[in-house]
Amino acid sequence: MTVGTQMQQAIAGVQSASATMKSFALQTQDKAAKKDFQQLAKTFDDALQILEGRLKYIEQQEPQYKEQ
Q1: Which of 11, 22, 29, 56 would suit a FRET pair with 47, their CA atoms being 20 to 30 Å apart?
Q2: Are the C-beta atoms of residues 6 and 58 closer than 8 Å to each other?
Q3: Distance CA 2, CA 66 (A)
Q4: Mind listing the pLDDT tens digit for each residue in 34-57?
C-alpha cells in the first residue's frame, strides 16, 4: 500500500468521523452534547484540511502517489 493510498484512507476516515459528529449534533436535544459534537466535528474538519494539504504535498513531491 502506498503512502498516497494510506493518506486517502486516513482522509476518508476523518471525513466519516466528522459526518458522524455532525449527525449526532443534529439528533441530540441536549445542548451540552450538541456543543461537544459540533466542536468535535470542527476538530475533525480542521484535521481534514491539514491531511488534504499533506496529500497534495505528497502528490507534488512524489507523482507516483497521485490517484490514477
Answers
A1: 29
A2: no
A3: 10
A4: 999 999 999 999 999 999 999 999
